[in-house]
Amino acid sequence: MQRFGHVIGGRATEPASGRWLPSEDPAHGTPWAEVAQGCAADAAAAVADAARAFPGWAADGPARMRALHALADLLDAEWPTLVEAEVRDNGKRIAEVRGQFAGLGAWYRHFADAAASLGQTRLSPVMAGVEVEADWLPFGVIAAITPWNSPLMILAWKLAPALAAGNTVVVKPSELASASTVLFALLAARVLPAGVINVLCGLGAEAGAALVDDPRVRKVTFTGSDTGGRMVAAAAGRTLAPVVRELGGKSAQVVCAECDRKAALNGIAAGIFASNGQSCVAGSRLIVEESIAEDIIGALVALAHRLRPGDPMDPATQVAPLANRPHFDKVVAMIETARREGAHLIAGGRRLDVPGMPAGLFVAPTIFTNVTPAMEIWREEVFGPVLAVTTFRDEEDAVALANDTTYGLASAVWTGDSDRASRVAPRIMAGTVYVNHYRSVDPGVPLGGIGRSGFGRELGPEALHDFLQQRVIWRGTTPFPDPFPD
Length: 486
Ligand code: NAD
What we know:
The chain is an alpha/beta fold and 486 residues long. It is built from 15 helices and 21 strands. Helices cover 37% and strands 21% of the residues. Strand 4 (20-25) and strand 5 (30-36) form a beta hairpin. The protein binds nicotinamide-adenine-dinucleotide.
């Protein structure tokens, strides 16, 4: 069985405890690899290494720019070697993983040039007799804590700007899908100085907690559940490290009667079924105008029945297994609760038997109608292929339903009326509101949530500065006055 240890100082490293965690292949329900179970000693070693590498990495912007371009080129050439590990680990469809990995180099390339030009700004103080300049300093060691759903893509959103800004990083991947991150870091070690990227594997409550508790960690960037986000923020409160939190969602898709129905159906399918609902921006609440509800729901049921389950390694597969057993159990339990609470199950709602994979963690694409805002299926993130549908009468109703959530990550409005788009979209309280579009993420566009979906933003024009601290330098241009004049 393959083993994935930590990556410290650019080398694969065994856990100090000698303990390993099994990683299960969710398509077959069997362990396929072991992952290092990191402890406090491993966390300390990873942070020490990142701290050692920091001064050299921070000092030379042009060298960072060249190294990040070299990393982007290496990823463009080598990404196919990383694909299988991620598919085995989290069961994601290979077609989707290939799409994400083919674009990995581009995230690093986007931020690389900025490394050489962090620059200084001349400020305009109100008072006379001084000149003030501002420049930018990296934090030092950053902890990047990632979830299991799209490990390498989400890591790129954190690493590319953090490294370009001159920080060094300790990555704590999910214990449920660490393999691709370990392989990526070993690949990156070919072109980056040792210690710039370290990987600490292990449990959140053990390795992750030890990492966040380390006072040498000067900033934490976390993507995961709101429960994890709360724990990490509480721990970082003790060390006073700032924390960016990219958390869950219960995103609404508002579908208006005059919309392009084919485009809307594509967007709904992309939002809830393409990643098995295991996407932070999953469009899991469908709010459809009454007059077209029957048609839209009918088309979605037909789609749910048509999608082809299969081995995630097969590029033709359309329904892959859920990523891991605890998550599968949670999704099945939430489906049961929705039934009990009176939602109408009109598609799926059951485990799928897929030939050749009797122990695979497959759940059929699932649709509930007659969902009310009191139900758990409306209020809580499932992170599975489960769509909760309700209808609206008018715009007020649509906006109120879309905003009836404690989350606020993403949402969409599907409409053929640009005035309606301009009225409805700005009233939706979410970090991202798409109009006649869904699920895109871009290095030039900020991503993040409001409310229970998190705090802070990734990507976008401010991404680099989010990994920098501003310093100002005052220069007196006239003699400094006597504080105790006669
Ligand atoms: P999780 O919170 O269980 O784990 C995320 C990471 O945090 C893992 O690496 C875990 O080991 C670590 N962790 C957990 N407890 C910790 C602690 N006390 N100290 C330090 N580290 C700790 O989340 P998950 O189940 O892996 O991911 C799914 C969640 O991620 C969903 O809620 C999803 O919506 C969210 N997500 C959000 C985004 C976004 O950009 N907003 C993107 C992808 C996923």
